[in-house]
Amino acid sequence: MAGWGGSDGLINAPGLGPVKPGHGRIVTFSIGGNARLAPRPFAHDGPPAPAISIDATPEMIAAGGVLYAANCFACHGLNAVAGVLPDLRYSTAEVHAQFDAIVRGGARAPLGMPAFADRLTSEQVRAIQAYVLARAGEG
After folding, report:
1. Which of 3, 80, 117, 136 is most buried, judging by how many CB atoms fall within 10 Å of its CB?
2. What is the 3-state secondary structure (H, E, C) of the chain?
3. In contact, 83 and 9? CB cutoff 8 Å
4. Rounded CA gap, 130 and 88, in Å?
5. How distant, in Å, are the alpha carbons of 39, 74, 75, 114 from that of 104?
6. Measured between alpha carbons, how far is residue 17 from residues 4, 5, 24, 132 in Å?
7. How many structural domains compose the chain?
8. CATH assignment of the domain containing 123
């Protein structure tokens, strides 16, 4: 991985340069190729906002933050501020409706998201979801 600082570019760690929100991609070249690269939009329009609301106590959100840090940040960014992979703070209501199926069930396995059923319970996934929604609410 190169271009945004190797693997550190995934997590937007503090002190490693500017925050790099957006959509990463890998580009390959062919000798004699003449295809044109269509620019992709970078980042999101505006600050994040929670797509849904759930009943969550401050303790549940804090526990979700600990679980997020242990299981999610390496791909989805430190404090839920993503680099090149999806920024969960911008998740749609449809994504939140499938949150457990995505995290535990591997519903996004074809896109590279592994299943965490062997590591997380549904209750723990709900706490992570509460944390992500709380972070979205912070803008």
Report:
1. 80
2. CCCCCCCHHHHCCCCCCCCCCCCCCCCCCCCCCCCCCCCCCCCCCCCCCCCCCCCCCHHHHHHHHHHHHHHCHHHHCHHHCCCCCCCHHHCCHHHHHCHHHHHCCCCCHHHCCCCCCCCCCHHHHHHHHHHHHHHHHCC
3. yes
4. 11
5. 34, 17, 16, 8
6. 10, 9, 17, 24
7. 1
8. 1.10.760.10
Taking Cα atoms as reference points, which of 57, 84, 81 lies closest to residue 1? 84
- The tokens describing 33, both together, are 């190729």
More confident residue, 29 or 130: 130
Give the pLDDT of residue 129: 98
| Domain boundaries, position 100 | 1-139
Q: Which two tokens stand for residue 3?
A: 């271009």
